[in-house]
Structure formats: C-alpha cells, structure tokens
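User: Could you go from structure to sequence for me? I need the amino acid at each position, not a summary. Structure tokens:
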C-alpha cells in the first residue's frame, strides 16, 4: 500500500468514527425541554455537585448560647439590685433576648474569688428583678467587666446595636467558653 492509500484509509476510518460519535449523540429539541419543565423542575447545577466546595461546619452544641438577636439592652435596674448584695461593689448587666451577662466588681473588703455561691445569688437577683431572663452568666474578670461597661456605655449613647453584636458575641464566647 502506498502512502496515499494509507492516508485515505486513515482519513476514512477517522471520518466514520466521528460521524458515528456525532450521529449517536442525542440532541434535545426545544419542545421536549419545555415539556420536561412542565413535568419536573430543572435542577440547579449546585444540586448536582457530589462534594461541597467547603466542608459543612460542625453543628454548634452551644448555638443558642451564642446566638444573639437584635434585642440588646442595658439593665440598670438589675445592676442596681445586684449592688445591694453583700460582696458586690458594682455591676453592669447586659441582656440579649432572654440571657443576662453580668460583670461584677467585688467589694474591697471581700478577699476571696468569685464563688458558685455568689454566682447563684447574683443569678437569683437577676431573675427576681427581670423574670424574662432564663440564663445568667456572671464574671468578676476585670477585662470582661471593663468591656461590658464599654458596651453598656455605647448602648446608652445610642450606638447602633448591630455594630456592637459581633464584638459582644466574641467577648461572651471568650469569657464563657464552657457555659451551657
């Protein structure tokens, strides 16, 4: 066989393969696509992905604790009632939804640490003055007390609460990481 006949044979074989491939592929007509839309919804390409682009976050067991709505307020009446307790010198109380965050400064005569007994007294006092509160978190950490006071001052001065929520949420998560 000569070079020319091999080329013609090769061209013919490739031509037949190409024609077979194109001929076997089905082409969807516009009418059938419209009919399909009436009988079943067309899926979005995102639904067809087998693996997500980013892994789904693990469920947060403490999601309710950290989820804060737009209902942030300073509870000065609650703070005033807490300062009447024997070992508390001053208090700041912020309430978001049904959760109160309390920062307390211990009386200078009090030499011990924050105890669960004091936390329980503070929690009872908060719920007594504001029955809408379900959960109470109490800290005497000076950094938390200062930052809580800063947020309370910003709320009193009319700063938009939406601008404060993320920082406040971060502060709460750092201060009360194991709270349930």
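Assistant: Here is the amino acid at each position, in order:
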């Amino acid at each position: 066989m000569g070079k020319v006949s091999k080329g013609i044979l090769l061209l013919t074989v490739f031509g037949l393969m190409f024609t077979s491939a194109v001929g076997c592929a089905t082409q969807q007509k516009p009418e059938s696509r419209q009919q399909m839309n009436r009988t079943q919804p067309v899926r979005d390409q995102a639904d067809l992905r087998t693996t997500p682009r980013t892994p789904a976050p693990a469920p947060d067991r403490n999601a309710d604790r950290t989820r804060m709505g737009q209902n942030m307020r300073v509870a000065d009446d609650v703070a005033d009632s807490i300062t009447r307790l024997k070992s508390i010198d001053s208090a700041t109380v912020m309430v978001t939804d049904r959760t109160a965050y309390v920062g307390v400064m211990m009386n200078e005569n009090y030499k011990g640490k924050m105890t669960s007994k004091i936390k329980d007294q503070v929690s009872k006092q908060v719920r007594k003055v504001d029955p809408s509160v379900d959960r109470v978190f109490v800290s005497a950490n000076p950094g938390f007390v200062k930052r809580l006071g800063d947020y309370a001052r910003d709320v009193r001065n009319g700063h938009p609460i939406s601008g404060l929520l993320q920082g406040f949420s971060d502060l709460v998560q750092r201060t009360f990481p194991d709270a349930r």
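One structural detail worth keeping in mind: The chain has two domains: 3-48, 64-175.
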